[in-house]
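request received
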Amino acid sequence: MKKKSIIRKSVWGLIRVAVFILAGVSIVSALTLYSALVARYREMAYSYLFMATEEVGGDYLYDLVYHRSPILEAINNSTPLQQDTENLTDEEKKLFEQWWKTNIFLAETIVFNESLDHFQIFIPVKNNKQAIVVWDERRDIYGENLAFTVRSILPEELEVVERFQNTDWETTFDKDLAVRTVDGKLTGTAIYPVYDSEGAPIAFAELDVSLSDIIHTILQTMGFIGLVLAVIIVISLSLYYKSIRKRIIRPILMLDEAASGIVDKLKSGDSVQKLDIHTGDELESLASSFEKMSGNLRGYIDENAAFVAEQEHIRFDLEMAASIQKDMLPKEFPAFPDRTEFDIYASMTPAKNVGGDFYNYFLINHSTLVLVIADVSGKGIPASLFMMRSMLMIESLASQTSSPSTILGSLNNLICDKNESDMFVTVWLGILNLETGLLKATNAGHEFPIIRKPGGPFKIYKDRHSFLVGAKKNVTYREYELTLTPGTTLFLYTDGLPEAKNSAGEMFRLPAVAEALNKAPNGSPSELLETVTADVNDFVKDAEQFDDLTMLAFQYNGITEEERKSVEYVKDLTVEAATENFPAVAAFLTQELQTAGCPEKTSKQIRIAAEELFVNIALYAYENLETSEGGYRDKNGVRNPVYIKLRITDARSKAAITFMDKGIPFDPLATKDPNVTLKAKDRKIGGLGIYLTKKLMDTVRYRYKDGKNMLTITKSLK
Amino acid sequence: MLDIAKHSENGIARISLTGELDTLSANDFSRAVEGFLDGVTHLTIDMNGLVYITSAGLRVLLSIEKTMEQQGEMKVINVCEDVMDVFEVSGFTEVLNIE
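response:
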């Protein structure tokens, strides 16, 4: 939009006002001038006529008309004139000319310097029936070419004559110029009586004044006045414009410039511009208000920026928390690609950035799987911190005992001891023997699991509930057992699933969950979660969810005999050949054997055999290299290495442990067994360790291959 | 770890072992009995609390047995099952007087 400048607007307004003023002044001054000029001319005309008539002298004129003019005498004495005539005799003419020049011209030279259109003397005679009219042919007053006429008095002239004769003219007659048009020119006529010595009017002097001259003068004057006024107005306007520009427009433009983009300027850190406005009026106060406002605005912008940064910080923290929390949950699927006995899939969709739900599953040994699903009261970061704490505690406790009720009992007491926030958590905890399918579970106030036996539908399993965790100390948790036959599927969830609400406020409800699962009862865990997710999304549509949605599906496949046979895994350990390193070797073996389900007695025997072999290697294998080269180092930089490989085979019914070293080739089995039946004093002390190893183990074998001594012991774990 | 408690009076001595008698602790055991057996005619080794033994331990026991054969008699008591297993497979049940 094209802006109309305030200055143009105001100047145009002023011009309009000026035109009106000019027009008004012109009209008023024209009228004033006109009446003033007319008055002046009237005054002049009457002054002249007064002078002229005084000089004329009524007596002389009477004498002239009635006694010395033969024609007038004739007129006076004869019958009335038959027709108007101009035929005065030469003598009469001479008499009149003499009179005119000696009287009238004299008056004119005294009074008037301006040209008068017409001057005539009107002399009524013969009882006001006829009149002698005398004038100058050149229509001036000099009387050079006097003209005469004798004619009848016209009715309108008679009216004037009678009025002059019958009234006291001085007091009753209005001395206006009678305005009329003569020969197309506006003319004013003044009439004045000529009295005789007795005061009787003898004649009338008439003077025509040209009003065209007056109007011309008026127009001239007005033109001049208009010009002067216009000049004054133009000068005033330009001064006014300058003043407005300096005092109003410039400050407004400065304010405009300062105001435009002030937020961006302040945001980019520019200082608030000091406004140079000292008009001493409202604009100055507006400018100072503006500066104050800019200052406030700056403060506000800074505050706002700080607020936004803080918000951003919190949002970042929340995202980090959500990410850390998500990372806490196992989320790589397939979770155990090398395990065929079971399949598992889980998902968690937090309602807010971070939620309080969690699931977990982990193996505590080769054949024991822990399944956890839990829901912490509350949402957001507090719930998520509480959730992490609970989750880690369960993991830690599960490594110490395989009883769900014991784990939750300990968890409950641990949480109750340090639970200032009065939060609590519902937990379903199951510990499954993957070989037998025996599930031990405790439900601490959590939702019912949904279970499908092979060939059947998914059914809600109303398990025995215990009290939720974290609310009261020393609660007894109950445990139940359930044997899962191969093909059984377990579906666990949090209340966010059955309580998912659509926009009408209706809940999804548990039967709908079971119904969704039964749409594809043979589906894999991930397919089951997909189906349920699709159904629940279809139900809630766009309604915002206020609770986390967490699901876990577990399918138990069991182990076939063939699989049982083929189960085999290998664990490695590399240490430096030194007797003081044996505790580390012992710890490794004990741990792994326990995981493999090895009986404690067997484990101890294996430990003895291992110690014998390891100590033997530590003492002798690198003996010669030790002194000359400061020891052997393998490619990984391990000094005098002993490589230990533990292999669990035959469905973990057998363990084979190989000790390898890069030292001098030596077969300890080649030494002769000591004769243990000898009396103590007869026995040699060496070789006892190897002997003991052979006795304790099922087999002991030695090989030398690729520069390595390899000693392998095997032992049945049954 | 091995705890060794020993007591000797008028030629009658008693050594109590608790913990594990392995390669590392066998040296401690060996050093502990050095000189202790001088003048001892009756030695009792109480293994109540000993849960583990290796050939290194057996060697020390054998060396003590050899010494005691010359100056008196020695018996081993309170042997747990695991240790007894080791004694059995190594033939030590034949060498030691185990009660």
